[in-house]
Specification:
Length: 130
């Protein structure tokens, strides 16, 4: 029986399995690999802290998650695939209120990032606030 997301250990399992799936994905894998290269441990640690802050209200992430995405060659299909992989990973591993919150927050994040990415692509002289 699946449990809900409750601890940082649960977050680490989710993040690790999600990014293992991303790395094998034909659409997203090459983009992540080009950007992250051999710095996966650093990226994963940052993602643990990000989701720990969002889902567990343990404030360990400090930063602006959007700016690194501006130069990436991504569009709606990439956000859709990212969300599909994230939601399927959550559903495979967990069930409960926090699992549903994780999927809801990922949906909102994908929407916001996509809208912001489109805005900055259309307005290249604009700089995001950090």
């Amino acid at each position: 029986m699946k449990q809900d997301i409750q601890t940082i250990a649960d977050i680490k399992i989710l993040v690790d399995q999600f990014y293992n799936t991303v790395r094998q994905d034909n659409l997203l894998g090459p983009i992540f690999q080009e950007r992250i290269q051999d710095r996966w441990a650093v990226h994963l640690e940052k993602m643990y802290r990000f989701w720990q802050t969002i889902l567990l209200d343990e404030h360990t992430y400090f930063g602006s998650p959007f700016p690194p995405h501006i130069p990436l060659p991504i569009e709606a299909k990439h956000f859709d695939q990212w969300l599909l992989l994230f939601e399927s990973t959550v559903d495979r591993l967990y069930k409960g209120e926090k699992a549903e919150e994780a999927k809801w927050r990922a949906q909102k994040m994908a929407q916001m990032f996509q809208f912001k990415k489109e805005y900055f692509n259309a307005n290249p002289k604009k700089k995001p606030l950090l």
